């Protein structure tokens, strides 16, 4: 554990105030959590977790070999990419192997989703069997209590289950998609989205409306009521957006913007279902990150009007993807998957500004 790096801490403390005000009003029970995946001065492969007490500003900086960070209960869950071991880190600086989520010798991949209150986690183990991959999906509380197996899928030589969301209405959303195909796309894409009602022990998985669909982006609101699906207009680009009210069984269709971006994803759905924000991109290839050719755009869907509009009119040269809504709903926090930092875009003006040197993960204790 490292306590120090004073210039970084001063910058983070200043930016923490900005991000904290954007997301929520801090109180004595909250710890703000940030991550730097490529921190200055750190050894290769090491990330930096930063825990800041919202009341006292006491800060703990922890260097770990990790990726795929998520807040679960009172800790941060992450994977050591070198060993595949799953760990958890606590705000007091302790780290330990995770006690109930670990790969087996036959496991090829672990994925997880966390409930909006961060008190439940669902994870999949994709295990190599004689007949292909078998995906086992398990649900448990953050402390490991009340575990139960939700799904056992396969063995299948072609498809595997990918978790998508665990929502406040006790619904587990997941995709069944070809193995490994998603790794070739910059944005996370889905093939055949399903839902499973966890409140009903007799419930069976069911396809969402209009599924299977194109291998495109999508998302659900935190309460599980609204489902947004991107639909590619043509290989040349452009994406229509269809937003479903799953409780009412009705949808709103918003036609594509008059801009031909070839790729899209990173969809964020407001909890009231009235707005959707997503990212679009052009000139994405395997080696395009340093090419200078990439261009990115952010779009807003006004579901009430059934219309889309560009949030910015000058394309971004780097990917800034939707992360979370601000507390008052006037903006969206953004992150760059290739670079540390947190940004904010004002939905009314399209102004983008950086608000933190590290990437915002969220609060512990809220």
List the secondary-structure elements in sequence, H or E: HEEEEEEEEEEEEEEEEEEEEEEEEEEEE
> What fold name stands as the CATH topology?
Methylamine Dehydrogenase, Chain H
Q: How many helices?
A: 1
**Which structural category do the helix and sheet elements fall into?**
mainly beta
The biggest sheet, with number of strands, parallel, antiparallel or mixed sense and barrel status, is:
4 strands, antiparallel
Quick one: CATH superfamily? Answer: YVTN repeat-like/Quinoprotein amine dehydrogenase
Parts with pLDDT < 50 across at least 5 consecutive residues: 1-7
DSSP strand tally: 28
Q: Label the overall shape.
A: globular
Strand content: over 45%
- Give the N-terminus to C-terminus distance in angstroms: 25 Å
Q: If you average the pLDDT, what whole number results?
A: 91
**How many discrete structural domains?**
1
What is the class in the CATH system?
A: Mainly Beta
Radius of gyration: 20 Å
Order of strands in the sheet with most strands = 3-2-1-28
Helix percentage range = under 10%
């Amino acid at each position: 554990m490292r306590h120090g790096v004073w210039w970084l801490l001063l910058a983070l403390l200043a930016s923490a105030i900005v991000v904290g005000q954007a997301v929520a009003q801090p109180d004595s029970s909250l710890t703000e959590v940030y991550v730097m995946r490529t921190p200055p001065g750190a050894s290769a492969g090491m990330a930096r977790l930063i825990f800041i007490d919202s009341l006292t500003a006491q800060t703990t900086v922890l260097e770990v070999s990790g990726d795929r960070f998520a807040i679960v209960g009172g800790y941060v869950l992450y994977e050591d990419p070198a060993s595949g071991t799953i760990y958890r880190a606590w705000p007091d600086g302790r780290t330990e192997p995770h006690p109930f989520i670990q790969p087996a010798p036959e496991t090829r991949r672990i994925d997880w989703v966390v409930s909006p209150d961060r008190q439940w986690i669902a994870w999949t183990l994709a295990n190599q069997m004689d007949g292909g991959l078998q995906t086992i999906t398990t649900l448990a509380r953050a402390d490991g209590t009340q575990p139960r197996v939700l799904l056992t899928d396969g063995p299948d030589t072609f498809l595997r289950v990918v978790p998508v969301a665990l929502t406040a209405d006790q619904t587990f959303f997941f995709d069944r998609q070809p193995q490994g195909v998603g790794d070739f796309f910059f944005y996370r894409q889905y093939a055949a989205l399903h839902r499973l009602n966890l409140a009903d022990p007799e419930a069976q998985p069911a396809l969402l409306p209009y599924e299977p669909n194109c291998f495109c982006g999508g998302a659900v609101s935190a309460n599980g009521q609204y489902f947004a699906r991107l639909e590619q207009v043509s290989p040349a680009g452009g994406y229509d957006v269809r937003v479903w009210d799953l409780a009412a069984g009705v949808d709103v269709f918003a036609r594509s913007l008059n801009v031909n971006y070839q790729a899209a994803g990173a969809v964020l759905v407001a909890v009231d279902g009235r707005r959707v924000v997503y990212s679009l991109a052009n000139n994405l290839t395997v080696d395009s990150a340093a090419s200078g050719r990439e261009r990115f755009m952010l779009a807003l869907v006004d579901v009430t009007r059934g219309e889309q509009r560009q949030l910015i009119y000058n394309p971004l040269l780097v990917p800034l993807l939707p992360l979370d809504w601000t507390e008052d709903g006037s903006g969206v926090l953004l992150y760059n998957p290739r670079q540390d930092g947190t940004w904010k875009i004002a939905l009314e003006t399209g102004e983008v500004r950086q608000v933190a040197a590290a990437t915002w993960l969220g609060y512990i204790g809220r």
